């Protein structure tokens, strides 16, 4: 195992592409190329091209932000906007990104306020430079104080409460809320929201960067908690793992699985009855509306929202509307 | 025990003085073993569910996903090097298999084969750069860690159009690959997942390799004193490159498990796990400076991690404390190692 | 530690002659009689030397590192190379061990003229060098160190494995033949004393077919007692028929074990003697350069009167030259 003969490696290297040509999978895989599906075939705005910066606190590799970005990009294309997308999970570095946007003399800044205190000063500078700011995703309660004229987002506690209400309706007493990132405020708010409606809610922390640990920790929890009757995943990929854990423990049906956010696989699971429902905060709208609101502001000084946050969710997806949404999820906008 | 063969009785009357106990105390993994036993008893008392066969299988599974890598990393550390890219390399491997099969719509086994080549190549490149430049492995693998993190994200988006790979569950060969890398074996009603067996087999093979083959001798030597090893004709360069490729191989095994257990892979996963592997190896008695340790020690280290991680859940404790416990465990295990080693040496 | 009981144990076994005396660290007190009493033949009559250097020289660019060096090494004999730092000892070893090539004179092995291109070539010719760093891995057990790089294996293909039992036995017996009786070859080399470690390295070289053994300053970093232990191993190697080249700057270590003495200074040979032609006092005087030492004493005296240091230097002058101080 330790010493690999070069001849053998060479043989493998030669064989693999040959097999690749002959051994095609009969199902699955990349769909054959279809007509470009941007969905934005409409007319482009006649305003001169402007630059708008979208600066989020997204960590690398999170599907959620892909959808936000897709929405923003679509609005940008429609509005003849040059979209500058950047992100950094660290508050201080996110502030530096805002500063860079100011330096680039953008026409508008859309920013997530996950750490509003870190961004307060730099957003003042944007205000001083006459750059309009909107906030999205997180910061619904602080957006005015940092100088954003509106906010697009879904209130996490409200979304959590919505899940809690629906669970309570189904007679759930002891749900487990799985937080995949310890110390994340919005995830904690979701679970807290669930708990306001179902007091028996229990929180389980898992290491989201390692799916095997998510799987084994959820399994351990379910083994040691026979009274659990539901389990809540806070992100689509994590819910998929939870579903597998529940199935392999033969608890399908006994323990109901519900979720936040969505992707195509999750919607398929809802259609298949493996997941009861999910709560979508419609991230595509957050991206689209943020850019569009900034463009509207540029176009005619409009300020949407009337100084109040614009709610993009929660929207509940269950068996009744899942099939209709599946198509859009596959397109990557839900 | 180091020796499977008992020394001939007529050797020396003083040999008898070095008792079984002293021999055992001289083993690198003794501190970890003591820690593991204490932890096991502890959790058995505070969380009776811990003792159920099913729960224990879960603990073993949680340990195995750290342990498979810890075995490769332990060997590498005995050889005197680090690999900070190990955590991300696991995901790179899984992404390779998944995206290749998906993009070209091939049988997934081809992707699996390609992933092995990629994993071994990552290991080879790590080792080769290290030996060519003579830079510390900390720097070299930190660089590959960052590069792989970037590649994972960038290529996944470029090829798959998203930050996660598309599901390959319906593709040809998926079922057979899943049967190998992520199967559930029901033994006497207990569900044991295949990584547990892979882990145990890997530990057995590497222990044998380390203690009973020439290569094992060389691994200890290149870690203990690379110059001395070179002077007596040990192929230092190839031994070290081979060790990095060994880590690559383990990464491939775990990466394939990740892929076939969850159908899809998130490109941002794996970051930070490299430290868990190193922690497991260190708890298991591997010296940070190289030349000392054992494969089974790394396995016990991973088992301690698994017990602590899952035990806290079984005991229904506030998991805020988990990292604290892990740190404490690391400190205690290394101190116990130190004390035991000193005592054994002074005898 | 193991070394204590080992030393006493060994003294009993190898008591007679010059061999045992070193163990007590009493090297300097041996007189000429005791040392010569076991001489078997005169050295000059050997027809073919194991190794022979004649007017060998080496320069690096325009720096002359070694010139006009003549010496011989025979089976079962110890040739000592003495000199201070920078005398050219290491250049000489490098030529013999195949690390560098000489560019003047002739170098014969078993009467055949050779120019060694690499350490491997030297090893194939039966010349093994034991350097100061010894090439042992401290954390590894003795038996693993002993066979490191040349392990004995059994089985085939993927099942090829170490023959641990045999390797341990061989290690133990080889070390025993060198006069080291270890309780346990499983203990790490790092736990051995400096002298014992030297011995493991020597025994290893002997086992793997060395006919000539180059020992580079083996006693330099050791205390009096440990030095004695190493000197005894040198004699053990000699008695097993090896030609030994013992490099040192200490005549008190060289004289009790040596059969021939080559003195180097600034790359030149300043003397080449058989043991019968030179006494320890003469050797020491040659080494230290008696005249220079006397001059130093004089200088010190002129500078600062009769300090303690001057007295010391004068005493040393007296000792080395056999004269009374001025």
How would you characterize the overall build of this protein?
The complex is a heterotrimer of chains A (334), B (347) and C (326). Chain A folds into two domains: 127 residues, Response regulator (Rossmann fold); 125 residues, Response regulator (Rossmann fold), CATH 3.40.50.2300. Chain A has eleven helices and twelve strands. In chain A, the strands form two sheets. A six-stranded parallel β-sheet of chain A has the order 2-1-3-4-5-11, with helices on both faces. In chain A, strands 7-6-8-9-10-12 form a six-stranded mixed β-sheet, with helices on both faces. In chain A, helix 3 packs parallel to helix 4, helix 7 crosses helix 8 and helix 9 runs antiparallel to helix 11. About 2% of the residues of chain A have low confidence. Chain B is mainly alpha-helical and 347 residues long. Chain B has one domain. Helices cover 71% and strands 2% of the residues of chain B. Chain B contains 14 helices and two strands, in the order αααααααββααααααα. In chain B, strands 1-2 form a two-stranded antiparallel sheet. In chain C, the strands form three sheets. Chain C has a six-stranded mixed β-sheet with strand order 6-9-10-3-11-12, sandwiched between helices. A four-stranded antiparallel β-sheet of chain C has the order 2-1-4-5, with helices on one face. Chain C has a two-stranded antiparallel ribbon with strand order 7-8. Chain C folds into two domains: 279 residues, Rossmann fold (3-Layer(aba) Sandwich); 32 residues. Chain C is built from 13 helices and twelve strands. Helix content of chain C is 40%, strand content 20%. Chain C is α/β, with parallel strands linked by helices and 326 residues long. The longest helix of chain C is centred in the last third of the chain and has 16 residues. The N terminus of chain C is likely disordered. At the A-B interface, helix 1, helix 2, helix 7 and helix 8 of A face helix 3, helix 4, helix 5, helix 6 and helix 8 of B.
